[in-house]
């Protein structure tokens, strides 16, 4: 079933009852709703869906040729968002920045989900043959650029539109446009860097030339910077040999590379130093924020029944209902009406108080969180990483339990940063996606352990120095990192368990 792709517009639908100023009104923001969803609250997740579904469905409508495929891709995206919600944290000080960060996270999740569905009709954990019609990608080249995207040349916009709003790899873009592969790589990179500069000016109050994460490397500037002409080639290996590894971050951010190319890039990164890797991943994050913002005009209202389908596929939620059920009529003697005891008013009052207490406990648990330090210390698989010396002075050490899915990091001897600077902690996911900020800290703050959950999803914790108030992505070289994957441990942790590196259990 073929349909027209939606046009881009600078006027996007309002996000339901939730807006960047929701916190000012005492209402939950998108980050609050997602956090509550992570605790299993389906009502909050419904509100989160209502506020964000137009952006997700709008992207699906742009990518897929069939409406039924777009609808299913939207449902699968929100099911993945439900699964990921317990592990996401948005700690920026500004409610507006948190709102923008949540939307970016969701759009990136949606784009990765949908491009994989387009190319493989499969998702890990969901199986294969997921699309009802599997009719392929929608036709491209029928959109007009928004004000932001109008700063691109027509050729750059055409390539970027096909890659992001069309879900194509850079090779598919080249084939569809009848343009050489190296030329398409250059157009995509240059397009991302041009709109990144506009994003920097609008939201960060600085020009791209001032930001070490986004020192642009568009084609003419490569020659000026290096004294040699180094253009893209037909294959990734040659590009890496030519010193264009950093430029590939923009193609990765667009999901415009194949799985095998991503694996080769991971091997390449493993051979680089921490400074290169940190800036490379930060460039991906910056590019994704830029592109999701630039293409916000794809928003389209989804069919009304999609929310029901999403909720129908979520795990059953019966927390607290058993308290009421236990006080209701007994079904022990089926068919014996006289054996059913009526519910007395005091029973309903008690049930209401119990449910209220449970709700308050859930809120307190959401705010305070579990005692992660104690949980890690008493876990049977807990281990302590090697002590890491930081380049600016001081040290840090990780304490991890994979079984509990929790970890904490302790610091010692940290110096006082220069005026206007703070320490910021970042978790880098194992899948190579954008880093997650754990917040900003002073040396006094870091006298207490820094805790986090979902440790199995992350490969390392990195410390950087950032401007006061924090950065959306790392903007300086790493001061040091804790390896959360290749655990080299030493000494017992406070719980007294041996700190042996976990080894696979032998069969038999």
Automatic annotation (TrEMBL):
Positions of the Anti-sigma K factor RskA C-terminal domain: 348-476
Residues in RNA polymerase sigma factor 70 region 4 type domain copies: 148-194
Keywords of this entry: Membrane, Sigma factor, Transcription, Transcription regulation, Transmembrane, Transmembrane helix
Annotated spans, Disordered: 1-21
CDD domains per the UniProt record, alphabetical: Sigma70_r4 (cd06171)
Residue stretches spanning the membrane: 346-368
Record family assignment: Belongs to the sigma-70 factor family. ECF subfamily.
One Pfam family this sequence matches: Sigma70_r4_2
Keyword Transmembrane: yes
Entry protein name: Anti-sigma factor
């Amino acid at each position: 079933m073929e349909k027209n792709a939606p046009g881009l517009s600078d006027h996007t639908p309002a996000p339901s009852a939730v807006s960047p100023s929701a916190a000012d009104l005492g209402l939950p923001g998108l980050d609050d709703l997602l956090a509550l969803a992570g605790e299993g609250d389906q009502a909050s997740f419904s509100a989160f869906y209502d506020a964000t579904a137009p952006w997700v469905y709008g992207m699906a409508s742009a990518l897929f040729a069939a409406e039924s495929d777009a609808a299913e891709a939207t449902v699968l995206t929100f099911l993945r968002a439900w699964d990921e919600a317990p592990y996401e944290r948005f700690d920026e000080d500004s409610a507006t920045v948190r709102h923008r960060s949540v939307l970016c996270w969701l759009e990136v999740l949606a784009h990765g989900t949908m491009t994989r569905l387009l190319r493989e009709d499969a998702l890990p954990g969901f199986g294969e043959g997921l699309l009802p019609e599997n009719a392929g990608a929608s036709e491209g080249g029928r959109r007009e650029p928004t004000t932001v995207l109008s700063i691109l040349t027509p050729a750059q916009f055409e390539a970027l539109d096909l890659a992001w709003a069309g879900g194509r790899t850079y090779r598919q873009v080249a084939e569809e446009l009848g343009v050489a592969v190296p030329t398409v790589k250059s157009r995509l990179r240059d397009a991302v860097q041009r709109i990144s500069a506009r994003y920097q000016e609008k939201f960060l109050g600085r020009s791209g030339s001032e930001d070490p994460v986004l020192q642009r490397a568009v084609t003419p500037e490569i020659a000026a910077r290096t004294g040699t002409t180094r253009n893209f080639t037909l294959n990734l290996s040659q590009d890496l040999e030519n010193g264009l590894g950093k430029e590939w971050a923009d193609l990765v951010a667009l999901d415009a590379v194949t799985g095998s190319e991503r694996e080769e890039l991971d091997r390449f990164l493993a051979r680089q130093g921490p400074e290169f890797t940190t800036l490379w991943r930060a460039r991906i994050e910056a590019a994704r924020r830029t592109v999701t913002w630039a293409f916000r005009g794809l928003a389209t209202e989804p069919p009304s029944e999609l929310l029901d389908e999403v909720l129908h596929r979520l795990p059953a939620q019966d927390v607290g209902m058993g308290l009421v059920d236990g006080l209701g009529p007994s079904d022990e003697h089926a068919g014996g009406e006289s054996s059913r005891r009526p519910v007395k008013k005091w029973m309903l009052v008690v049930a209401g108080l119990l449910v209220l207490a449970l709700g308050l406990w859930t809120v307190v648990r959401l705010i305070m969180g579990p005692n992660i330090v104690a949980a890690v210390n008493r876990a049977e698989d807990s281990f302590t990483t090697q002590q890491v010396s930081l380049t600016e002075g001081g040290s840090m050490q990780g304490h991890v339990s994979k079984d509990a899915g929790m970890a904490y990091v302790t610091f010692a001897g940290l110096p006082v940063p220069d005026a206007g600077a703070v320490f910021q902690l970042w978790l880098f996911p194992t899948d190579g996606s954008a880093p997650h900020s754990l917040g900003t800290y002073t040396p006094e703050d870091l006298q207490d352990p820094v805790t986090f959950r979902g440790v199995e999803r992350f490969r390392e914790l990195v410390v950087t120095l950032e401007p006061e108030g924090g950065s959306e992505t790392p903007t300086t070289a790493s001061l040091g990192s804790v390896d959360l994957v290749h655990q080299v441990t030493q000494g017992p942790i406070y719980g007294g368990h041996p700190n042996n590196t976990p080894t696979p259990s032998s069969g038999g």
